[in-house]
Amino acid sequence: MSRAGGSVRETTQAVLFDFSGTLFRFEPRDEWFAGLLDDAGQGFSPERQDEIIRRMVAPVGTPDGVVGEDRIAWERRDLDPRLHRQGYLALLRTLGLSDPVHANSLYDRVLEPESWTPFADTVEVLRRLSAAGIPIGIVSNIAFDLRKVLALHGVDDLVQAYALSYEVGAIKPDARLFRAALDPIGVPAEHVLMVGDSEKADGGARELGCAFAQVHDVPPAHRPTALLDAVTAHGIGLGV
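Predicted structure:
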């Protein structure tokens, strides 16, 4: 009944989670754009706000127009907080937000724990896994301390291992990042489930023998039980 790659396992003994798009979501708020002007001196429509936030939290490849040292910073952004800021300010310039004061103001929202919204079942799944004695790890390509986000919601102490790219020095799907979470937990990879929103990045856990369950990065209201469904589908009993 057990098969590597993501099918049901009766012997799943630990769960690793991605952070952004899996446990929490960074969503636009009107007040973030109040007083911010683009390069033409115009404000940002709701559609442009949504596009900017989408590009910030779900980037694919190197943005057009990000070149030279900024391109290097972008490619290495999840390894260093300074490079993360540099890379994202370069991205914002390509989106019409060149004023450094305005761009830094928007970027700083990413670092604020209050900016991150939990999915409907995030707190519940972490608490129920912990109550069931299932070790939890978080594996994230990120350049700031996400522990503050979990602490804001009272669940940081439920996580046994944090493998953050800027602390480990590796970026998913590099197996070293997953290994950095597995080692403290002490559960063999073949008995671990990785849950994430990226087949490419989070699915890299399969290289070590973990199972993988994909959830989708959509507004929290559209995904009420995806995390609970993922863990129970892999043989983890959470009780009532």
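Summary: DSSP finds nine helices and seven strands in the chain.
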